[in-house]
Design goal:
Layout: H1 19-32, H2 39-48, H3 54-66, E1 70-75, E2 78-83, H4 85-94, H5 100-122, E3 123-129, E4 134-142, E5 145-154, H6 157-169, H7 171-183
Antiparallel strand pairs: 1-2, 3-4, 4-5
Helix pairs in contact: 1-3, 1-4, 1-5, 2-3, 2-5
Length: 184
């Protein structure tokens, strides 16, 4: 049995309780995702899934950056985390040290987060207060061409936020359903 050396507050059953395991998880995620993560996205995945303690996750990432295992690259005013080629090789060899459930939870959550971030960049959603409620404006564009512009009234902010989240789950499906309904 491995001795735990990391804080476990906020860690779900099956989560990581060793500093080495947390570092390995970070390397595994950065190696196995198609697109790099920001520090904020990495933290969100780890916390959302209860994979490691917040402070331990941040310390592990700082240690990996200090050691030169993880490099911070800037793109479009955002900082992304990237593994060095040597770290990629080591991550491939050591990934079996992580429990399969931890690997699957981490990758699935990270992919969902990246999809949501892409949808937020590609679709403009504004919530504005009106006299008696809220208007939620949705704009879907492809480059400079607006494909869909829709404004919906909501009675309260909870409903407005719910519409926003519902749209972000499947904006293409909503667009397709509107086109199908209009051309039926």
């Amino acid at each position: 049995m491995t001795d735990y050396d990391a804080f476990s507050a906020g860690v779900s059953d099956g989560g990581l309780r060793t500093r080495q395991g947390i570092k390995l998880l970070i390397c595994y995620m950065l190696e196995n995702l198609e697109k790099p993560l920001t520090k904020e996205q990495l933290n969100e995945v780890i916390q959302e899934q209860g994979l490691a303690n917040y402070f331990e996750g941040n310390q592990a990432l700082d240690d990996l950056i200090t050691a030169g295992t993880v490099i911070v690259e800037k793109e479009d005013d955002r900082e992304f985390l990237v593994l060095t080629p040597e770290a990629r090789e080591a991550s491939k060899e050591l990934e079996s040290e992580l429990p399969r459930t931890v690997r699957e939870k981490a990758i699935n959550a990270a992919v969902r987060l990246q999809i949501k971030a892409r949808r937020l960049r590609e679709n403009k959603i504004e919530i504005e207060k009106t006299g008696s409620g809220y208007h939620v404006s949705f704009t879907m564009a492809d480059k400079d061409e607006v494909l869909l512009s829709l404004k919906v009234y909501c009675a309260d902010i909870t409903q407005a936020q719910s519409l926003k989240q519902g749209f972000l789950k499947d904006p293409v499906g909503i667009y397709s359903a509107i086109i199908a309904a209009l051309t039926a």
